[in-house]
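Researcher: Here's a chain I'd like modeled. Treat it as a single chain, no partners, no ligands.
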Amino acid sequence: MSRHFSRTALSALLFLCLLNTAGAATAKSAGPQPPNAPKHATVDTYWGEKVGDDYQYMENVADPRVATWAKGQNAYTRAWLDRHPERKAVLDRIVALTHSESPKYYDVTYENGLYFFMKDQPPKQQPSLVFFTSVSDLATERPIVDPNTIDPTGGTSIDFYFPSLDGKYVAVSLSKGGSEDGTLYFYETATGRRLDDVIPRVNGGTAGGSATWNGDASGVYYTRYPREGERPAEDLPFYLQIYFHKLGTPVNADPYVLGKEFPKIAEIELSTSPDGQSILADVFNGDGGEHAYWLLPPGAAWTQVTRFEDGVVQGKFGMDDALYLLSRAGAPRRKILRLPLATPTLSAAQVVIPETENAITGYTPTTSRLYVTEMVGGPTQIRVYDLTGKSLGLATMSEISLVGQAARTTGDDVLVRSQSYTRPPAYYRLGGNDIELKPTALAQSSPADFSDCEVRRVFASADDGTKLPINIIMRKGTKLDGQSPMLLYGYGRYGISEEPYFQPRLKAWIEQGGIYADASVRGGGEFGEEWHQAARLGTKKLSMDDFAACARYLVHEGYTKKERLAIEGGSAGGLLVYGTVVHHPDVMEAAIAHVGYGDVLRTELAPNGEFNTTEFGTVKDSLQFRGMYAYSPYHHVKDGRTYPSILALTGVNDPRVPSWETYKMVARLQATGSPNKILMRVSYDSGHGIGTALSERDQQSADALLFLLDRLGVKYQPGQDKKATGKSGPSL
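Model: Modeled as a single isolated chain. Structure tokens:
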């Protein structure tokens, strides 16, 4: 077990004096420098291993000394970025490419003839909630909840929404400042009128949140974090339980329903059967990919259907009084089971679709069909079956693309959202006797024209010979002479796969002669559960080694050279970036880490940290600790070593990855004496990225692009798309 020694606190005066004198001393010889972070030696002992930590005091981000240091770092970074004369032009180009007049629709739900969508349409700061009566006629769109009207500053965002089965009402969680601290409100769909009922603490950045309606729309089952005085002091500050609220009754009287049986790191998603008679609770064991399912049948008590160890990872109601379950038990690429609601025990489930060569990532049961989403190493496709498991055909797109999970509408008809690296997202109908994706009116157009680009799919070899897919987006005719600047992106966590997404801001990079590469490394789910498990807990360093192998491949094949290569990732992908930087500093010139983890030995002490123990590992287990210590980026930074230039971004309201993870990583890297830039950008009005206002997203994108151009030696030249101007952007 770990034992944490106390430390002598530094006085605020001493801290500020050190900060100011250090900054003044270095300024005389080397020009403006970021503020120095004084070291204060702390030693933690884990399983007999003494681990030093000079910046543990930074975990108290509210300490005025730490806050002053962070503001100084941000001011230094801001000054460095803003001194570039092209900064405004870069921002203007980002805005021009991303502020499409054509709205983006996503997160569809169909109930009783109404299609509910989230709608994102710049220059509005936040997405809103709307509904259609026809996806073939844009004129049928009607607004329900617009956070931009509620809060013109752009600080309020929608966390989630759930419509009632009759479509009359919709429950919406709203939070502020990127905190994800959600309050549940209720709206009348037809008018947008808000009801009087208000339920706080239903959503958070730790375990998320959920709600679902009962059959007659008289009330909702919802998740809630404890109120003050409802938990023992030694418990986690955040954990979810399920309650029920009847509309028009006092919220304080809402009865507890379920949750005391769950682990404190449980994350819960709720759903209602199509007939409104049953409720399903999907209980996640933290973030590691284990699920258990609880069912509330009509006229009966809650019953546990599956346990974490059973290997069931998805559960959905069918239209035929059955649950359809996605299982990895004995099937790393997963199989689908059918379980009659009349006998809700796992032993009664029958295999409908056995494991195939492609990993199953999702499925949608309809009246007589199963629409199954298959992962083909990153790109996806939909295979259609009848309810007995007979294959009826394959729905796919011609290019490397993401074909999203089908959303059930009526009968056997579904809506499917598809996009690619070069094609904006659009919704398609699927159903009838032929297997064909038919366009709807909900197709986004974009100012970003990728018609002069090509997408290549290549495979790097990991150190053990495993083939690692890389999707490459670049201008047609680009010479592979090693001179092109390149940005390599990766994630590799939680079994989440790198899929083809349309990102209009990438055109600003490609216009400068840049190449973009999207790598699939182990820890993701591109090839099923074995791919995930290969880089989980104590073996997570494997994903960093894979990422470095991808970088070396791109250099070897002439796409770029080390001096013109940068890597990027966010959140757990930020951990991938930091880990690759410290374990393989020789493979890249620069790195961008968004809201990343750095010190994994201390991560579980943060509010959201314990949820990650099922993915990252825990220091409470000796074997896991040793694996974590072997990959933790913070603990492998070496004094006197040259590291790539780094831009580290964080938000002070981040409920998922606390800002001190970035603070400590930046302080430690700066202390090495590495001659390259180590910059820290702090956002004081946002968090992890969820709910961040559009204007701040624009600023972050512009700063990241400017950093890349500077560090990789690219002189910015204004670019314009052929679609908008009849001219092409410049070439380098």
